[in-house]
Design a protein that fits this description.
The protein has helices at about 1-45, 45-70, 90-100, 105-115, 125-130, 150-155, 180-185, 215-220, 220-225, 240-245, 250-260, and strands at about 75-80, 85-90, 120, 135-145, 170, 190-195, 230. By secondary structure, it is an alpha/beta fold.
Length: about 260
């Protein structure tokens, strides 16, 4: 009898574990599926292309205006993010959908090691224009320093200028880009920042609070409009973290629940 009860307990525990794993797997697959429309829009909509062209054109207008009015003795520069700013990683997102997965460091690094992300619309034209005006180009990205060689290879493949470790500043430990931006500011006068996340301009926007950062953007609107160019990225970003209360460690099941709760009805 005791042996029978022990077997029953073990079987129940194994069943519960399998059920939990199945639920987690289903939640991950559901989150992965939800990427579908965002990736389709990013890859297949003419609207996306125009949005990028408009953003980079606005960057040129800001740059021209700053150059015409600058009294700073330091040489001028622009600072750009890399992923979904100058390089298109949407094929990685499509891979996640195909495999029912969400972002993981291992699969991401496998993708970046291939160094085949394409240049985004308007990006190369903008940095080429900046260089023609005597403006230095810096790239500050939260790719890790272990990805530097592959990143430089990819930038060179797409003919981006300044594809060297002197101008490409990747993450060593902290995701906060403040220290790297300040490093550029030591030697250059940054005219324009460009990126697909508000934290590509300032870490102040990392804490979105309960209103998802809307009030902060409203309060800083003029500063942003005069110094920062926002590129569209519906696939991932700080906005998603805000939905999870900035806790990416939550289970996929809880993340899925929070996504649904965040919808306005």
């Amino acid at each position: 009898m005791k042996k029978y009860l022990l077997l029953l307990i073990i079987a129940s525990a194994c069943s519960a574990q399998v059920q939990t794993q199945s639920t987690e797997s289903s939640a991950e697959e559901e989150i992965s599926k939800q990427l579908g429309n965002a990736v389709l829009w990013y890859q297949r909509s003419a609207e996306m292309r125009l949005a990028y062209y408009q953003a980079y054109q606005y960057g040129k207008l800001l740059l021209d205006n700053k150059l015409a009015n600058s009294r700073n003795s330091k040489p001028p520069a622009v600072v750009l993010d890399i992923d979904e700013t100058v390089l298109d990683n949407s094929p990685y997102e499509a891979w996640l959908i195909d495999n029912g997965e969400t972002y993981k460091t291992e699969s991401w690094k496998k993708w970046t090691s291939e160094a085949r992300a394409a240049a985004l619309p308007g990006a190369l034209e903008f940095v080429t224009y900046a260089k023609s005006r005597g403006v230095e180009v810096f790239y500050i990205s939260n790719r890790t320093v272990q990805e530097l060689d592959a990143t430089l290879k990819n930038l060179k493949r797409e003919n981006f200028p300044n594809a060297s470790d002197a101008f490409v500043m990747l993450k060593t430990s902290a995701s906060d880009k403040t220290e790297r931006r300040e490093k550029v500011l030591e030697t250059h006068n940054v005219m324009v920042y460009l990126g697909d996340n508000l934290t590509d301009f300032s870490e102040e926007f990392a804490d979105r609070e309960s209103d998802m950062g809307f009030k902060l953007v409203d309060n800083k609107k003029d500063i942003l409009l005069n110094n920062f160019v926002m590129l569209p990225n519906p696939m991932y970003g700080e906005w998603e973290g805000a939905i999870y209360d900035n806790n990416y460690g939550l289970s996929d099941e809880i993340k899925l629940k929070k996504r649904k709760e965040a919808l306005i009805r």
